[in-house]
């Protein structure tokens, strides 16, 4: 539609300028201008298409590496490759791998006391809507022993403003809004409505409640409490958890205990004084075999793609530095030392796990070699499947990260950046050429209009002369 409109406008222009030769000067101008720039525009279009294919090929390879690293990392951290601990007596504790190190073996666990939090109640009120006065309530935190309180100066006191006309329910809302670590609610008991305050677990998280009343609006002092006061108002006391790992006594301010065994987080649920349970780690040899099979298949998928895109005759990335670097990395992958700190004679490379490189760049898995390594040193093999500085995941992740480093021209991301810049330059060049082509077309139209006018005038003169000659000839006859 745009080309038709342009041609129509061109013909109108030439007609207005006095065209009379009968030649379509507009089409002639367009064709000549297009012919002038066709070769360069075609070359730029071809180069643009090539760059698009190169960007797509490099992006696909980079995405495949990142996907492999991501899925392997998830499997190592949280999946079947992680050394998941098991507690024989699930009523005593739950256990989870914290993602640090490679814990192995079995441990005895005895819980003698769970961590508790302080619970405090107020005197009874008729209803939650009862007024309680106004002023400031202050929560102070520390350790309570008998009727004494030792404040923890490292735990800042919290002041809670109670507005004029506040009710018992309003006080609960104000305490919850203070973000003090103490929660509150109103319990409707058989004795009446009571404000209940609950602190955090741990002996040092005990608390007292002080009140500073607004003169003329007294009443908050009824809520205040210290251990020297009414002992019945403290429903539960705060305390630390106490437990033993392999007979060694330990404590925790929380029932969620981080790294009592390196790499393990315990959640204490109940006590088993005198009857220790067992925490152990299952043998994941079969899982490692399956993981190596999956890894080999994934590497082969990427290796096939590398061979395709780097083919000297048909590959989009045949001369690409990033693709060649990845191909070189893959060719040396099986023999690369991925556990540099492992003692001599223990598994240190992927080839020790059975990964073998074929002449065409593909991979196979030597099951016998993997079984031999698992049999001779299962713990060393298991240590290769962690999310630490070294190991299978770290190696694959490093390759993926390297491929994604756009500041390095020798990586896939660097190639994508370079190709994208070239593509942008080509777009600018195309726009400039199209602009020049249009300028030339306009110039030709103007020139042809003048010529066309002269030709038209000449044709009129020739016609006049021809008519005169014809008339003379007729008279002579």
Task: Describe the model.
The protein is of the alpha+beta class and 477 residues long. The protein folds into 3 domains: 9-81 and 284-453; 85-114 and 241-281, no CATH class; 117-236, Immunoglobulin-like, CATH 2.60.40. The protein is 43% helix and 21% strand. It is built from 9 helices and 18 strands. A 5-stranded antiparallel β-sheet has the order 1-16-3-12-13, with no helix packed on it. It has a 4-stranded antiparallel β-sheet with strand order 8-9-4-11, covered by helices on one side. Strand 5 (135-145) and strand 6 form a beta hairpin. The longest helix is centred in the last third of the chain and has 65 residues, at 412-476. It is flat, with a radius of gyration of 43 Å. The two termini are 57 Å apart.
Mean pLDDT: 88
Strand count, sense and barrel status of the largest sheet are:
5 strands, antiparallel
The arrangement of helices and strands along the chain is: HHEEEEEEEHEEEEEEEEEHHEEHHHH
State the secondary-structure class: alpha+beta
How do the strands of the widest beta sheet line up side by side?
1-16-3-12-13
Task: Indicate the proportion of strand residues.
Answer: 15-25%
Counting DSSP H or I runs of 4 or more residues, the number of helices is 9
- The low-confidence runs, each spanning 5 or more residues with pLDDT under 50, are 1-7, 9-19
Give the strand tally: 18
Q: Which value, in Å, is the CA radius of gyration?
A: 43 Å
């Amino acid at each position: 539609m745009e080309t038709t409109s342009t041609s129509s406008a061109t013909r109108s222009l030439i007609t207005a300028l006095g065209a009379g030769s009968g030649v379509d000067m507009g089409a002639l101008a367009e064709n000549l201008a297009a012919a002038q720039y066709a070769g360069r525009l075609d070359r730029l279009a071809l180069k643009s298409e090539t760059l698009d294919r190169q960007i797509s090929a490099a992006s696909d390879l980079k995405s495949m590496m990142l996907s492999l690293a991501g899925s392997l990392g998830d499997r190592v951290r949280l999946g079947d490759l992680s050394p998941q601990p098991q507690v024989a007596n699930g009523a005593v504790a739950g256990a989870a791998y914290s993602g640090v190190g490679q814990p192995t073996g079995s441990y005895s666990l005895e819980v003698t006391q769970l961590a508790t939090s302080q619970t405090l109640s107020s005197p009874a009120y008729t209803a939650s809507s009862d007024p309680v006065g106004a002023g400031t309530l202050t929560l102070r935190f520390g350790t309570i022993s008998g009727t004494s309180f030792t404040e923890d100066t490292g735990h800042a006191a919290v002041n809670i403003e109670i507005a004029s006309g506040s009710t018992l329910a309003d006080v609960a809302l104000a305490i919850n809004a203070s973000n003090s670590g103490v929660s509150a609610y109103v319990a409707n008991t058989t004795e009446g409505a009571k404000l209940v305050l609950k602190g955090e677990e741990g002996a040092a998280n005990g608390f007292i409640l002080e009140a500073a009343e607004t003169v003329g609006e007294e009443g908050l002092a009824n809520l205040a409490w210290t251990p020297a006061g009414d002992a019945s108002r403290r429903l539960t006391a705060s305390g630390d958890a106490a437990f033993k790992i392999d007979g060694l006594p330990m404590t925790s301010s929380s029932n969620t205990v981080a790294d009592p065994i390196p790499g393990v987080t315990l959640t204490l649920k109940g006590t088993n004084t005198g009857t220790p349970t067992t925490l152990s780690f299952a043998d994941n040899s079969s899982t490692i075999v399956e993981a190596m099979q999956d890894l080999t298949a994934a590497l082969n998928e990427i290796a096939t793609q590398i061979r395709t895109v780097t083919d000297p005759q048909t590959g989009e990335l045949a001369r690409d530095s990033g693709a060649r670097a990845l191909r070189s990395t893959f060719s040396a992958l099986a023999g690369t030392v991925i556990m540099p700190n492992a003692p001599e004679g223990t598994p240190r490379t992927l080839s020790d796990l059975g990964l073998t490189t074929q002449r065409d760049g593909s991979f196979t898995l030597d099951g016998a070699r993997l079984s031999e390594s698992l049999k001779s040193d299962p713990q060393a093999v298991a240590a290769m499947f962690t999310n630490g500085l070294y190991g299978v995941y770290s190696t694959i992740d490093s390759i993926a990260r390297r491929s994604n480093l756009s500041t390095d021209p020798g990586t896939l991301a660097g190639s994508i950046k370079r190709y994208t810049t070239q593509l942008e330059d080509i777009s600018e060049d195309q726009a400039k050429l199209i602009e020049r082509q249009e300028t030339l077309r306009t110039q030709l139209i103007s020139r042809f209009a003048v010529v066309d006018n002269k030709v038209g005038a000449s044709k009129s003169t020739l016609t006049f002369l021809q008519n005169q000659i014809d008339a003379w000839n007729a008279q002579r006859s």
